[in-house]
Structures are given as C-alpha cells and as structure tokens.
Amino acid sequence: MEKTALYNFHKNSGARFVPFAGYEMPIQYKDGIVKEHINTRQSAGFFDVSHMGQFFVYGGREIELSLEKIIPLDFKEIKLNQSKYSFLINDEGGVIDDLIITRVENGFNIILNAACKDNDIKEITKCLNSESKYELRKDLSLIALQGPKSETILETIIKGVKELKFMNGNYFEFLDKKIYITRSGYTGEDGFEISVPNSIVENLIKLLTDKNAKPIGLGARDTLRLEAGLCLYGHELNQKINPIQANLKWAISKKRRETGGFKGWENIKKDLQNGVSKIRVGIKPAGKIIAREGTKIYSNTGQEIGVITSGTYGPSVNSPVAMGYVKSKFSEIDNKILIEVRGKRHEGTISKLPFYKKSYVK
Amino acid sequence: MSEKKYSKKHEWIMLDGDSATVGISKHATEMLGDIVFVELPEKGKSLNKEEKAAVVESTKAASDVYTPVSGEIMETNQPIVDDPSNVNKDPENNGWFFKIKIKDKSELDSLMSQPDYEKFVKDNPN
C-alpha cells in the first residue's frame, strides 16, 4: 500500500484511513463527513489528492496530433495555461478515464485518476511517437483547496492566485520554488489545485491550517462531487459507457463532434446522430431513503429502466441525492420513477443536475 | 432498571420489567460516522434473537441493526427517523431504536456487561 507525502499529517489530524486505488487515504478526519462537507461549502477545505497521476507530455504540434487520437479535444484551441476536462477514449468510444488536461510551456499536464493512471499511461504512450518525452511526476503532491474562502486564504500565502480564472493555471513562487496552480476542483465550489513538491507540501499545509482551512477526506469529496452532479470514474464512467451516454457531450470539442478522427468515433457519431438508448441523470429519492450504487430503477408502471451508479445523503441540500443511468425516454426532468431499496419500491424523481448550484469564478 | 448489556454486533439493551430498550453503542456510532437515515421495525413485529431489526445509513454505507433478544416490537423511536443525527448526539440514551417485549430473559445471559464490551471493542477495533 502506498502513502502520500502527507500521510503523517493525516494521521496526526485524526484521519481514518481506507485503502483507495493502492493508497492509504483519509476517508474522514475527527469532524466527520457532514461537517467536513459543510465546511468546504461555507468556508474552505483542502484535500490531499496526491494519489492522482500528474503526467506530463512534452513536445510541439506532433504530440497534439497524437493526443487527439485518444482525447476528443481540439488541441489548437487550448491556450497556454488553459485547462480542459475530457477523457481517454477506447476503440468502442468507451471512457478509459476522465481527466483534466492543461497546456503548459512545452507540452501538456494531464491529471489522471489514481486507479487508472498506470493503464492510462500505457494507452497514451501507445499513441505517441517514439521520440516523445513524458513523465509521471511522483515527486509532486497535489492539493485541492476548495470553498468560498479559498481565494482569500491562498492569496495571503501565494500572491497573485486571485487573478486566475476558472480552468486556468500558472506558475507561482512558494518557498523559492516554482509551483503550478490551476483554478479548478471537483466539488462545485471555487478553488485551486496546487501542484507542489513533496519536500515542501507540509509547509503549505501548515500555512493553510493556520488560515483555518480544514483537512477534508475522501468521504466528503464524494458527497460534494455528487451534489455538484460530477461523475466519478468507476461509477458513472467506465470502459463500456461513452461520453454521450454520460451526458458529457460538452467535454468533446465542437469541431471534434463534427469531424471525429479519434478512437471510437463511429459509435460516438451514431449516438450523436440518433440519440442514446440510455443516459446519465440525476435522481432525487422521495423522503430520506438513500439509493446506493446498484439500486434498480423502475418506471412508475413497474418496468425496469435503469440503475443507480452513486447515491448518498447530500448535506448541503439536506436530502438524499443520486445519479444513475435510465432508458432515454424516461430521462425527462421531473419524471416520476421507482427505486428498489431492500426489496421495497420507493418513489423518486428525475432531477436536473447539479443538485447544488455551483459557484465558480468566471 | 437493571444493568445495560451489549451484543457483539454493537447493540445495547436495557431491561425494564418484561420489556427492554435497544439501541446502538456509542462505539458503533463513532465507527459509522454521521447517521443520515434510520429505518425502524414495525410495531407488533416478532423477531428472533440476532435477526435484522433496523437499518442505519451513514453518508458512506448502510448497516443492519440486529435485535440482541427475541420478542415483539412494542414501540419505536420516531425522533431518530425524523432527524437521524439524534442517534449520533446521544446514542445510548435519547437515540434508542426500539422497545421489545422479551420472550426469554435467559437470552440476556449471553450478552456482555459494559466493562466486557469495552474490552471486546478494544480487542476488535473494527
């Protein structure tokens, strides 16, 4: 089991650890998931996401053309320091992983899910020509600072971060080192992702906690992203689901939706033209009933129409929230459905996403 | 009132005449984290010792609550259904789950005293 550079910090902060993608990661600290969640929405919290892969590919136009085979973005359109959410696509159009890619000097930085990163790197490097340079930066930690007070807190530590626009990044100075920060995150809040050398990550965390930012575990990360209607790989996304079914058409560049030229294009083109048979939706169970992953979904006439992929209690909306896939003709917002929990069918509604309104800085 | 006893599945039970009050231990609530959903048995339902009686859910997962003795459900604690955080606030008192009419008092003999339960928790941290 691997540990991040902040393992001792987590331990000393009362973390409860769980094995996650081969890492020992904090699921929660002393405050517990609900308080950590609320604290992120109302103030600021930071997450150690150093288990995620920070992968760099270096080169010019030739690597863009290589990456375009497997990532459905129009790379010419990505400006220096601009980040984009997208995917690695397989031959059938299924999602190998979802990722954030940022154009940096001399290449691209790609943030990969921890559980997928080894396979992702195989898939990416297969597309690159043999002279291309790439590296997985295990010497860097990744800290996500999220919540409405993130800007004020980080600006007092690192001057200039407040100038960053959402989904943009830049280099900043921290303890005489050049570090890369993007304005992004995965909670539905304003915030930053800070890539910082392992050797000084504890210094950064000390300054964040001095400013009253609280450590947040994977438990609250999950409730936050679910309220924000964001997909989690392995739940809403997998190799058998394509981005059109996942209702993430927007994450394929407009030009690529028209001209294709990436893996799985034939299937994706078909779904773009004819519509999909099943689609990702938000689901609000009635009352307090929680519909977990794997819960079957029925139409109100009793026909099985889909399955829940994530479900929990949403602390900020103070009700259960879920996402899942249903047959497209049942996917209309406000459509009544039934969900089967412990052998009993309960009412629910197809809900628009996000459940909790985002507050990103444009 | 008699002594509070504990099961290996982290329920507590307090005998009062022919009936008893059942809930989940403070240790159990600490392991579960924030409780966000509670489902209680129907009144009048007969259950056997160690049969599933209730469900609690945290933000992470659902867990079953078992009855430590056989009997008939007499009363359930609606306030923990209306606001499940009441279980975390006072698990071994106001956060009780149900009252059960006990069928066979000798079933209580196999349960643990408080000091024994504390030792059990220490030896079985998860």
What structural category do the secondary elements of chain A indicate? alpha+beta
Sheet with most strands: strand arrangement of chain A: 10-11-12-9-3-13
Shape summary of chain B: globular
Global structural class of chain B: alpha+beta
Uncertain regions of chain A: pLDDT < 50 for 5+ in a row? none
Description:
- The complex is a heterodimer of chains A (about 350) and B (about 130).
- Chain A contains 9 helices and 19 strands.
- Chain A has about 350 residues and is α+β, with helices and mostly antiparallel strands.
- Chain A folds into 2 domains: about 1-225, Probable tRNA modification gtpase trme, domain 1 (Gyrase A, domain 2, 2-Layer Sandwich), CATH 3.30.1360; about 250-350, Aminomethyltransferase beta-barrel domains (Elongation Factor Tu (Ef-tu), domain 3), CATH 2.40.30.
- In chain A, the strands form 4 sheets. In chain A, strands 10-11-12-9-3-13 form a 6-stranded mixed β-sheet.
- In chain A, strand 16 and strand 17 form a beta hairpin.
- In chain A, helix 2 (about 35-40) packs across helix 7.
- Chain A is globular, with a radius of gyration of 20 Å.
- Chain B has about 130 residues and is α+β, with helices and mostly antiparallel strands.
- Chain B has one domain (about 5-125): OB fold (Dihydrolipoamide Acetyltransferase, E2P), CATH 2.40.50.100.
- In chain B, about 20% of the residues lie in helices and about 35% in strands.
- Chain B has 4 helices and 9 strands.
- In chain B, strand 2 (about 10-15) and strand 3 form a beta hairpin.
- The longest helix of chain B has 10 residues, at about 115-125.
- Chain B is globular.
- In chain B, about 40% of the residues are buried.
